[in-house]
Specification:
Elements lengths: L1 E6 L2 E10 L3 E5 L9 E8 L2 E15 L2 E9 L4 H4 L1
Antiparallel strand pairs: 1-2, 1-4, 2-3, 3-6, 4-5, 5-6
């Protein structure tokens, strides 16, 4: 699933590769700083949600830090289900 998010006052895109109850893993194509914050935009059944997140980890893949794990700081009920 492709997602859109704001990080460092810019809009970015990523692909969700793993989802948990309070977070997800994203392939993002560029590196991010651990502990940095942003806002994730999700669309489900025609409704949009904006969820603040914190970068928990970033890992190298193909020699760049392009995979990150994020913690959703205020996961909404629809996301959890």
């Amino acid at each position: 699933m492709e997602v859109e998010f704001i990080y460092d006052n810019s809009i970015h895109f990523g692909i969700v590769t793993n989802i948990s109850g309070k977070g997800m893993c994203l392939n993002v194509g560029i590196g991010y700083v651990n502990g940095a914050a942003g806002k994730l935009f999700l669309e489900s059944q025609g409704k949009h949600s904006v969820i603040p997140f914190k970068v928990r980890w970033a890992r190298k893949y193909h020699n760049t830090y392009d995979v990150m794990g994020i913690e959703l700081l205020e996961p909404n009920v629809k996301y959890v289900h």
